[in-house]
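MscS family membrane protein
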Amino acid sequence: MKKILWILIFLPSFIIAQNQQSDSLKVDLSSPSATINTHLNFLQEDNYQPKKSAKTINGLEEKKAIRKAIKIKQVLDGKGLYIDLNTLPTNSNYVDSVGVNAYSRYVIFPNRLPDVYLEKKGNKWFYSDETVTRIDAIYNSVFPWYVNWLQEIVPEYGHYSFLGIEIWQIVALIILLSIVIVLYFFFRKIAFWILKKIQHYITKSNENIEVDKVLKKLAHPISLLISINLIDVVFPSLQFTLAVNRWVFLALNIVETVFWIYVFLKLIKVAMEIYAEFTENTHSRLDDQLVPILNNFFTGLVIVLGFFKLLTLFGVDATTLIAGATIGGLAFALASQDTVKNLIGTIMIFLDKPFHIDDWIEAGEVVGTVERVGFRSTRVRAADTSIYQIPNSKLSEIVINNKGLRLYRRYNTNLGLRYDTPPELIEAFVNGVRQIIIEHPETRSDSYNVEFTGFGDSALLIMVNVYFKSLAWSEEQTSKHRLHIAIIKLAAALGVEFAFPSTTVTIEQFPDKGNLSPKYNTSKENINATIQNILTEFKNDVPPENTPES
């Protein structure tokens, strides 16, 4: 009797306390944070009041608003989108500044669910009209038609739970993973076939073993990405709890990001292989040097962007991250101005192309062959095989004499004949040298000069001005060698002697001494026959092997 009495005394107080506690949780739509709290709190199992939650939906009758509010929460749970209530904006005048125009709206998950957002109407925040209109389509995409069908065919014992997970969910997960594994091997073959077709379409060739190896490695992550996307689409249908979905989708996003990084790295490698094959068929070797530079640049870019993406998956604000990276990059640039200047100089060199690899250049005090163009400097090998490392910033500013871009290599020299050489032999010698130049395979036969130009201190001067076709230094020396040998043979055959600085005392009459002057044969028949023999020998002469280029 006493117990009943105590119950009757304290029961009204308990009911009043419960009503007061219920009334303390009021509908609050004053800010994005308050609206989302109202929506989610009144749909919890321990505080299920869908009518209050439906207050966040504007312009619909109560029953429809309740269905919309419930579907929004189910979509968030199905996609594993956990809302940290402490990070929501509490400002009633919050403005979304992302984009060209500023709006009084708040997108909860801009990347994964951009169509679900709040907007301010009057002094209150509601789910936007677009969200309310599209939530049914979003719900159907997250929970397709077969979800209800699964619920109907699952027997009663299938709903028994183990560690908070129902048996039918475990069985469905095993079936899903089995299907994904089978599809992975199928998609891998399809991906390799498609990549091979694309590579053949671009390069018009199937005979590239290195590219085939890279394409096979590239087909693996592509098929894995397709499999992960399949899991991403189907997994919400298994209706796990928010906690499970949250960690599963986080893991899937991390794996997907890592695979995308791998895919882009392999794509860069394939692109560089194809570009390297293309540059091998071009005349310029500067393009060949561009391959490793572009490879390093794009590889670093993919890794940096992928790292930023991974940080955003762990909740790091992308705006803050980019701002910090910008400030840090500015500070780094100020601290390394010379490096930045050299990088800009590198870009200017590849854009202007003042020289190519293996070109012989004169850049200030440096004369030599360009061997390599890097990010920071250019390597030039001098004639004595020493190496010069010229900063690209300096190289892009100074005057460069690129002898490798000459159309022809000009060679000019003077031949000195003895003063007592008869005019007939001088004329014959000049004509013979002209014929040698015409018959020389490495000289321009349409542009040359061989003339008797003057009287030197010790010799009659014959100017020889020719242009060699080859731009390579070693081939020029070989061509000179062959030309010189032919001229010497011509002079010897004609009996023409080369002069050298000397003083000659002529004694016209000296007892028992003959004249020391050379005997010249000026017979026209002999001259023509001699020149013809020399030209025939020159044509049949095998040129010596090229000497190594300095």
